[in-house]
Amino acid sequence: MTKYIKIIVIAYLTVFSVYADNRLEKEYIKTNDLVIQLKFPNHYRVKMDSLIQLSDKVCRHNGYDKLRTELLSILEMQAELDNVNIATIKHAIDAMELKENREQVTEKIKQLAALTTTASQGICRNEDTAFKQAEEVLSLKRQLLFMNPQIKANEILTVRYNLGKSANHAMANSMGLPPNNWSNLSSASRSHFNAELVCLSGLNQPAISEDV
Predict the structure, then answer these.
(1) Which pLDDT band, with edges at 50, 70 and 90, does 135 fall under?
(2) More confident position, 164 or 30
(3) Whole-model pTM?
(4) Of 63 and 205, which is predicted with more confidence?
(5) Are 144 and 89 in contact (CB under 8 A)?
């Protein structure tokens, strides 16, 4: 009887080990898919190599989970920085035909270009200072574009959706919008979404304030 129990236990442990290995392989693939999207992936490649060396499977699983959380935040900021096109901003400034503050504008554009490069590299190493620089880049971009003398407004009314983890794959129905482009608002969802009206002010200032 004891012999059969041992065989059952060994078989169970073998199946569990294979399952754990398969799960870790999937965790590695999901995490690596995010790493290869980084412009400067070397820092996280080293981290991935370190995790592979761990014999404790639970630690490896937790490590992959932590890395994915960091990487999603980094990739979101990286996408924001990718939208900072210095040449386009210069063209926009030229089109404004500003008569004042030209030196100030030129200095801000130089600062924007330098910070964008530094921040892009630093966020790929998950550096706190780089994220602060990235926020400064976005603030400078906004200030420059709102220097257009034809834009008189300093505040806008908008809608903020609280989507949580579903933000990257939310569909129209989850935001109270029509499900397709040939429908009107009568077919939009009236419930099961979390949204609020927000008034953003200080658009041409270093920091934006909000009123809910």
Answers:
(1) very high
(2) 30
(3) 0.68
(4) 63
(5) yes
